[in-house]
Structure formats: C-alpha cells, structure tokens
Amino acid sequence: MLKICEMTEKEVQEIAAIEAENFSKPWSKKGFLDAVRDEHALYLTAWEEETPVGYAGMWIALDEGEITNVSVKKDRQGRKIGTALLIALEEAGQKRGVDSFFLEVRKSNEKAIALYEKTGFVRMGIRKNFYEDPKEDGIVMCKR
C-alpha cells in the first residue's frame, strides 16, 4: 500500500539515489537536505512498506508553487505513484495558500508531460536550451 508523507532528513540518502537513477544532472544529498530544512520548500516521499519509492517537491513563494522534482524509482514506474505524488503535493501546497503551480520539463520527457497534462497542467511556453547533458529545451507548464 502506498503512503505519502512529508520528506524528512532520514530518507534523503535514498531519495538522492532515486534522483540519480532518473536524471542526468541529479540533485545531491545536500540539495535535498537543504530543501527539507527550508520553510519555503515542501517535499513529499512516497513509501511502499518501509521503502521510499518516489518523491515530489516544490518551492513556495506567496501563492505560487514551483514544482522542482517528481520522480519514481524505475522499477516502480507505471503504477500511478507519480500521479499520487503530484496530487498530494498540490493538496499540501493548497493548504499553505498556493493557488498556482509551475514547472519545467524536458521536451523529450513524454511520460512526464502526459502525467502533468492528465492532472490539469497546460503548456505555457518553451525555455530554449534550458537543460544540459544533453542540451534540450524545457517546456514551461502551469496549473491554476
């Protein structure tokens, strides 16, 4: 059974491993520790039994949330964990006064784009050469 709760320092090492598994320019363990400790950040962990299987996070500025990460362990993808994390992140953000959510996603990341569109995000524009390794445009998406 999937359980989603606020990320703590205890699971940051495992979260950083999931990040490294999925991204060419992963956040470091320190990056996650800094986020977990910051009052303007909100990071959630998805658990199956005693194992972290995914996470999502955002930075909050007034009534806006910038979603920075949504990631699921490769061997657990395709089980709606990303959808559950995104919905939980939005609900937690709304409790903190967030009413607009923004994110960037690689143009080639069709699975993520489909997830975001399925949950109500719309494409707002393109950031040319936003990503590195490999260099790629980022699609800016928003949900209000």
TrEMBL record:
Catalyzed reactions: N-terminal L-alanyl-[ribosomal protein bS18] + acetyl-CoA = N-terminal N(alpha)-acetyl-L-alanyl-[ribosomal protein bS18] + CoA + H(+)
Annotated function: Acetylates the N-terminal alanine of ribosomal protein bS18.
GO molecular function ontology, one term from the record: protein-N-terminal-alanine acetyltransferase activity
Domain N-acetyltransferase positions: 2-144
GO cellular component entries: cytoplasm
Record PANTHER family: ACETYLTRANSFERASE, ACETYLTRANSFERASE YPEA
Localization per Swiss-Prot or TrEMBL: Cytoplasm
Domain of life: Bacteria
EC number: 2.3.1.266
Matches recorded under Pfam families: Acetyltransf_1
Main subcellular location of this protein, as a coarse class: cytoplasm
InterPro entries in the cross-refs: AcTrfase_RimI/Ard1, Acyl_CoA_acyltransferase, GNAT_dom, YpeA/RimI_acetyltransf
Family membership: Belongs to the acetyltransferase family. RimI subfamily.
Name of protein: [Ribosomal protein bS18]-alanine N-acetyltransferase
Keywords on record: Acyltransferase, Cytoplasm, Transferase
